[in-house]
Amino acid sequence: MVSISACFSESYSEARPKFCAAAAEAGGALRSWFNPRARGPGGELLHLDTARFGPADAPHMLVLIAGTHGVEGHCGSGAEIAWLSNGGPGKLPADTGALLIHAINPYGFAWSRRVTEDNVDLNRNFVDHDKAYPRNTGYEALAAAILPREWNEASLAETNRVFDSYSQAHGAFGLQGAISAGQYTNPDGVFFGGHAPTWSNRTIRAIARRELSRARRVGVIDFHTGLGPFGHGELICAVAPDAKSFGRSRAWYGDEMTSPENGNSTSAVVVGVMTDCFPQELPDAEVTSIAIEYGTYTVPEVLTAVRADNWLHQRGDLASPLGKQIKADIKERFFPSGDKWREMVWTRADQTIGWALEGLNA
Questions:
Q1: Which CATH architecture has domain 5-129+196-300+331-360?
Q2: What are the domain boundaries of the chain?
Q3: Could you read off the pLDDT of 225-276 as tens digits, one per residue?
Q4: Does an H or E element contain 16, and which?
Q5: What stretches of 8-71 adopt beta strand conformation (E)?
Q6: 348: Cα separation from own chain's centroid
Q7: What is the residue-wise DSSP string for 310-337?
């Protein structure tokens, strides 16, 4: 048994070798996917790594994904390493394999950012880019306040005035949705869905085809942080309630599962989520996907950290005292320090993985 806290890493450069070593020790087949479009803060090369377990033709596949929103990769990486280090591969049922995807967005993980090297929110990028993009008129109305010219007390006070006015008209959840639901009009803004598939988008699709094409049932768990009560892992099903996979998720996870479209989730309704790619790339498989969303701090604190980080990379100076403060803050908002939160992450992850394996083999 390995200490749970030791499974988590303070940086991408620490997490990657730790993941690869744990996967190799557990007997996994490792593959690495080099991102040629970005480097880390120290100039290091960036990779998405995968580890596969079980028969090559396993009809049932468990998929664990870390780092869709890069800075949230600290959480997913720790959960994956904890699963590897505590005998997870050896507990897989017969006819069941597992695919662990580590640092799907390695740039964001390395730089403590939610976004990719294109400033794209990967969980808004999986739309049909040949069609008209969804409009977010709320974001357009708030864009100047979301990304102010300066980041100081005066600009933040003005931003809060604008946000308060919008919230009074549309409600607090309406404000959250306007900012975070996704937008395709402001490439320098937050929650930008992009105007083309990102490197991570194209790569995860290739991985799905290569590693999962022989599976008949696929259960996906995508690790996220930043919404909800501290340390609680909310199980969010982002597909439409009338989809067949929604019913399967309900059967697997019961009342633990929430739905943005049904209004019982901490998440706004979003479009273009990453897990949409699995049923698209695996049309012959039953795909059942959830996101596990771990609470950290309050929504205003988290959104302010996201906005500050975006401002810093668009208009600020990373080497300045303010820049260093902003970088430390966004990491803490998505990866709280201390052992308690990390232990809560693993307890919920272990439970959820168990439910997924039961569902896959039901």
A1: 3-Layer(aba) Sandwich (3.40)
A2: 5-129+196-300+331-360
A3: 999 999 999 999 999 999 999 999 999 999 999 988 888 898 888 889 999 9
A4: helix 12-25
A5: 29-34, 47-53, 60-66
A6: 16
A7: HHHHHHS-TTSHHHHHHHHHHHHHHS-S
